[in-house]
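Holo model, MTE. Inputs:
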Amino acid sequence: MDHSKTQDVDDAAQISLAGLIIRQKEPKNLEAPFDRIDSYLTPRELFYIRSHFPVPNLDRDSYQLHIDGAVRHPFALSYEELRSMPSETRVATLECAGNSRVFLVPQVQGAQWELGAVSNAEWTGVPLRALLERAGLREDACEILLEGADRGTPKEGPLPPDPISYAWSLSRAKAIQPEVLIAYQMNGRDLSPDHGFPVRAIVPGHYGMASVKWLTGIQAVSEPFHGYWKTSDYAYWASMDGKPVRRALGEMQIKSEIARPRVYETIAPNRIYTVSGAAWAGETDVTEIAVSTDGGRSWAEAEFVDPVRRHAWRRWKFDWLTPKEPGPYTLLARAKDASGLIQPDKHDQNYGTYVINHPLPIEVFVGDSAGSRS
Ligand code: MTE
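Output:
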């Protein structure tokens, strides 16, 4: 089967039905219409966009990727040279660490993402590991710093004195995993400017902030990188011997989201309504989904639509016989991973305005029409 053709047809059908939702106009922070996307791969045009600074102007012909720092043989690659190296294609879900922030009560600072700062795509590129092997990583290299070409002054303090670039570091252990890609294609097409053209990192299993777009520098460092993004911004309070310590976010936490019904949708009584959604986790597999249609008092098992594939979401569905009794109902979905871990009941305050992975309440109204609401 010509997979790319099928995907194109699928994309066209989905795109004509839906568009992105603005959370911030410029720089672009656009949410995917989670309730409108039925496909396993999110079409490129509907994949969420999270950018801190304006899109840098990078040209394919003059593009250079520098690999240096704690390596024996620093080198630079052109776009064509990168594309001529052996490549791999992998499916990975990206979720912004602030996804679902709008569900936090009272409201917190930051983009008010609902359900769509998450998307799933097929990425093609060169494993970071191959580039590091070629450069000859020194024994003292503890992290790999990925730097983007975009620059500016971040929004929230404490702020560094001058404008900075977007940069994120990976532990050496994660950087050499085969799934980490230096990617130039998504869903079989070149990256679009908003998604990092010409080249970006894809770090499957980690929150989206690690997948640096407009990548121009890969630097091996012999001391942990404590830049703005890893300390002021994407960090949380962990505990060390009972004392709170600041740590950078990393692995995505297990989560499921209901795509349909939509929040505050009106649903006909006494009918079969197929509740649907998707679930994902970081370095583990989602193995079970439970759905509640009574605000968490009782749970029933949902059915998976997609097989297990590490680092990619699994869509699921559940047939709900809607109540005869009109009124408000709260739906929840809760995922379990292969080790038996389930989503937490509540948002963990130590994560501040990030990692919102408790079962999100989807409030609906069962009744014949919106007009029957009292
Ligand atoms: N890379 C650069 N250079 N600049 C950015 O602002 N945003 C990060 C990451 N990579 C960002 C970046 C964040 S917070 C997320 S969630 C993902 O990109 C979003 O990737 P997308 O816009 O392709 O969905």
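The first strand starts at residue 21 and ends at 24. The chain has two domains: 55-248, 255-372.
Archived with the compound record.
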